[in-house]
Every structure is written in C-alpha cells, then in structure tokens.
Amino acid sequence: MNRLLLAGWIFFILLSVCTESFSGMVVSQTVAFHFQPHPDLSQFLVMDFTELTVPEAFIQKIGHAFSFFVLTYLLWKQRGSIRSAAAGSFAFAFFTEVLQLFFSRNGCIRDVLIDAVGIGLFYGLYVLAKRRKQEMYEKY
Q: Where are the transmembrane segments?
C-alpha cells in the first residue's frame, strides 16, 4: 500500500510540474503539456522572492512545501530511513525544478529551497518525536 501511495504522490507531483499551468489544472481541470527542448537554464538560478507577495503565488509555494513534506513522509515509510527519505526528496525537488524548465514553466532554485522547507519540517518533527519517545522511555 505504501508503494502505491508513494507512486501516486510522485505521479501527482510530476503531473503538477509538467503541466503547462498548475492553476489551469486545478481551476479548469485541464492538463496540457508544452515541451521545450532548449530551455533557458539560467532561469534556474533566479532567486526572486517578490513573487511571494502575491497571495495566489504564496499559497502555491505552501503547496510546494506541503508536497515535499508528504513525499518525505511516504519515502520514510517506504525506506525506513529518515536521512534517505530526506535526501531522496531533496534530489526529487531539484529534479522537478529543472524538469519544469523543459515544460515552459518557471523552475528555479528558490522553489527547491521552498521544497526543502517541507522536507526539513518533516525531518525536524521526526527528530523531535523520536527524542520525545526516547525521553519517555528513559523516564519509565
């Protein structure tokens, strides 16, 4: 069951990043792809955070973090190693942002960092929960 959930979540992320418009996918339920074989790879290095002042963009970036929080959880359940899950999620975040450049989307390092917030949040909660469990075990 975990494999199926993981595969489905990865598929959802890939569909979301490759479709021409995430908003179009959500609002009008249309999925369209526009492959660009020679993207401007320098766009990957853009670190413009002013876009986050737009509420819709900010909500979408929360979705980025949430997606990778969930992915990290699912990878952890599958692999059993939090470090492996976090590393796999981070590698996938990097991959998906580069992939977006080939589908006329704005893939950039800023979004990898936003994805890393979700990964780090799960990792941090995992460490806290593990520490709390260990403290409870030592207490009794």
A: 4-24, 56-76, 84-104, 109-129
- Which amino acid is located at 46 in the chain? V
Tokens found for residue 107: 């893939």
Cα–Cα distance, 35 to 101 (Å, whole number): 9
pLDDT in tens, 75-124: 999 999 999 999 999 999 999 999 999 998 889 999 999 999 999 999 99
Q: Where are the domains of the chain?
A: 2-139
CB burial string 97-116: b at 16+ within 10 A, e below: bbbbbbbebebbebbbbbbb
| Dist CA 125 CA 120 (whole Å) | 8
Q: What is the mean pLDDT of the chain?
A: 92
